[in-house]
Amino acid sequence: MGTGMTEKQAVPLWRQLQQAISVVEQVASGRSATDALLAVPADLRPAAQALAFQVWRNYGRALGLATGLATKTPQSWVHAALHSGLALLADPQQRGYDDFTLVNQLVEAVKRRAATKHQAPFINACLRRYVREGQALDRMCEGDPQARWNFPKWWIQRVQRDHPQTWEHILEASNHPGPMTLRVNQRRMAPSHYLEQLAAAGISAKRQGVSAVILQKPVPVHQLPGFLQGAVSVQDAGAQRAAEMILDGFAHSASTRILDACAAPGGKTGHLLEMSDAQVVALELDGKRAKRITENLDRLQLHAEVRCSSALEPQTWWDGRQFDLILLDAPCTASGIVRRHPDVRWLRRESDIATLAGIQRQMQDTLWPLLKIGGRLLYCTCSIFAEEGLQQQLAFLERNKDAALLPAPGHLLPSGAAEIGSVADNERLDHDGFFYALFQKTAA
């Protein structure tokens, strides 16, 4: 046990912990987990990600515990090591090793790093004290909502204010990993047929919604029948609502022109093309992310006109022909997808909400003139905050008297919790948090 090795581990646990701690430290300093993980050696990346995700899901509690264990703030990497150790110790059900092994290997991780080896006794003392006195130290954090819910205090207060009826459910659901959800390409087969293929491959799954299939346990994509041939894509059930909603009841054909703004990595673009023969323009500002759109469409054997430019600068990419449909998946806090990106809650600052809301308004107002009369604009964000959702909807209608609101779910809350006041067909599926508002352009 002392080596931190199992039969399945190719490297000792202390090396995995070193990489995870570095990722946790970088997120604490403002870098996204996605970028930080790219710097981790490929053979260590999956383990480092799994450990870091577990840390972030218990990070609020770790922060509270650390204040009672460390009288002085150590340098940032050692601080991240302490927080990581406490977060992992606080959640024994989610790891495959005992307290002794975890403490031993975490101390080894600090010791094996030249810049921090002198801090190994400090880490050892703090973690062993928590192992001995955990219940008493836990009680010291009982009145701290950040330690209770493992979200920043401002985030908790915002959710309480925006969703007073369901805030506890939202926080609880957001702290559990989301399932692996697939979107079946119905140009190829029906979801019921694909479920049969999964069963034949020994993969348990169930159908949800129109095209969604939820796996009982995640599997590598190369093990999915037909994945490389474009039979399915990985996409949350809530995200799948976008293409379904904007096309539902709209008479589309091969001459229909659709703009997918902020389209990377191309999940919604692909879904639009799976459901229609329309001409789709996929817009993305970032060149590397725009390339991913093309790669994903190539796998699906579908085509869109991918343009690398800003939705806020139509003069650089728009040919003057108005669109029938515009899907605006606007930049947002990503507060609705923390099940899959648990670092987001610790990376975001409360001031980010107003900044992003301003960009969302600019994009709405820039793209609205590009829409034909009778056309539809679907505004969506993967956010649970009202300032990025319902408040945007109300303000848009106030600014644009030629906009009529069509039925849409409004706030889809994590894990299928339906917000009070949502329309009756707001399905209770297992999905991330989103906001959807569907506008039709009238002749005002």
What does this structure look like?
There is one protein chain. The chain folds into 3 domains: 13-144, NusB-like (N-utilizing Substance Protein B Homolog, Chain A), CATH 1.10.940.10; 181-234, Sun protein, domain 3 (Alpha-Beta Plaits, 2-Layer Sandwich), CATH 3.30.70.1170; 249-441, Vaccinia Virus protein VP39 (Rossmann fold, 3-Layer(aba) Sandwich), CATH 3.40.50. It is globular and about 70 Å long. It has a 7-stranded mixed β-sheet, sandwiched between helices. The protein has a 4-stranded antiparallel β-sheet with strand order 2-3-1-4, with helices on one face. The protein has 444 residues and is α/β, with parallel strands linked by helices. 42% of the residues lie in helices and 15% in strands. The chain is built from 17 helices and 11 strands.
Secondary structural class: alpha/beta
Largest sheet: 7 strands, mixed
Fraction of residues in helices? 40-55%
**CATH topology category name of the largest domain:** Rossmann fold
Radius of gyration: 24 Å
The total strand number stands at: 11
Q: Strands of the biggest beta sheet: in what spatial order?
A: 7-6-5-8-9-11-10
Name the CATH architecture of the largest domain.
Answer: 3-Layer(aba) Sandwich
Shape: globular
**What is the beta-strand fraction?**
5-15%
Spans of at least 5 consecutive residues with low confidence: 1-9, 416-427
CATH homologous superfamily annotation of the largest domain: Vaccinia Virus protein VP39
Any idea how many domains?
A: 3
According to CATH, what is the class of the largest domain?
Alpha Beta
Mean pLDDT: 92
Topology as H/E string?
A: HHHHHHHHHHEHEEEHEHEHEEHHEHEE
Q: Report how far the terminal alpha carbons are from each other.
A: 73 Å
> How many distinct helices?
17
